[in-house]
Design goal:
With about 280 residues, this protein is mainly alpha-helical. The protein has one domain. It is built from 17 helices and 4 strands. The strands form 2 sheets. Strands 1-4 form a two-stranded antiparallel ribbon. The chain is globular. The two termini are about 25 Å apart.
């Protein structure tokens, strides 16, 4: 079965998300263990290699790539898939964003925080700039400690590994847990961390935006000829990538933020949202 057919037939993403969690997170850690790691830090980390090193940009970048080669390969694979098929990693397989979304669904709606008023791309790429240059400004270590790719695996592994529970009880561990809780578990849609703070999401969003300009790539798109402007998809979008400007009759999609989850398509009464190539 081709990946596009699989994407179109799956009614629920959660089986894929659970599979991603089983592969990457404790207690199984199946993929990290293949390269000698116990969590998503070290060689498996898909984020830390992006931080500029004080050793020098070129030599530091090479050192980062060598140290975190699996994470580099993972990000490269994600970007290739995103270019041709949309952000399937973020919406269907990422164990971190998937965990915050699933846990968030267990929390009552009245306790949820809406981040929809935040200009996500502006915030995301501002933070991304700080993240990349963090070592020079002394913030690299802090970004690592607050990273959801650290907090979620430690949280999942804390019942099995006392050291993880001990870390989460420290001031830095609690700060990281609070960051993930507010921007993940208690965020409306469960994906505010993904949309505003994730460095992988930042580069993945750029790949999705740029590749959407090509007619041969397959993305989640809106057919303006069918859109009735009801706005139901806007309220469904977990990353507030859909807007209904007052001056227009149709919904606008921000491909920098869209994670290709297709939840909007499920809520569209007019069938205006589809997954495929750009219509001519």
């Amino acid at each position: 079965m081709r990946i596009t057919e699989l994407f179109g037939r799956v009614k629920h993403r959660y089986l894929f998300i659970l599979a991603g969690m089983l592969l990457f997170l404790p207690p199984l850690n199946l993929i990290p263990q293949t390269v000698g790691e116990t969590n998503m830090c070290g060689k498996v980390c898909p984020r830390l290699f992006l931080i500029l090193s004080t050793k020098g940009i070129a030599s530091g970048a090479l050192s980062n790539v060598q140290a975190m080669w699996f994470g580099v390969g993972l990000v490269a694979t994600v970007l290739i898939i995103t270019f041709f098929f949309g952000r399937l990693w973020c919406s269907h397989l990422c164990p971190i964003g998937g965990a915050t979304e699933l846990i968030g669904r267990l929390i009552p709606a009245r306790l949820k925080i809406s981040f929809a008023k935040i200009d996500a791309p502006a915030f995301r790429y501002g933070y991304f700039a700080v993240f990349v240059a963090g070592a020079y400004w002394g913030a690299g270590n802090i970004a690592c400690k607050l990273c959801s790719y650290r907090v979620i695996p430690f949280l999942a592994g804390s019942p099995f590994e006392p050291a993880y529970a001990a870390y989460l009880s420290t001031s830095m561990g609690m700060a990281g847990l609070l960051t993930v809780a507010l921007s993940g578990f208690f965020a409306k849609g469960g994906r505010a961390y993904c949309n505003c703070l994730c460095p992988v999401g930042a580069v993945d969003g750029l790949a999705n935006y740029l590749s959407s300009k090509f007619g041969f790539t397959k993305k989640v798109r809106t057919d303006p000829g069918k859109c009735v402007g009801c706005g139901q998809c806007v309220t469904t979008c977990m990353v507030w990538a859909l807007k209904k400007p007052e001056a227009t009759e149709t919904v606008q999609r921000d491909t920098l933020s869209c994670v290709s989850c297709m939840e909007c398509a499920k809520s569209c009464p007019a069938g205006a949202i589809y997954y495929g190539k750009r219509q001519k």
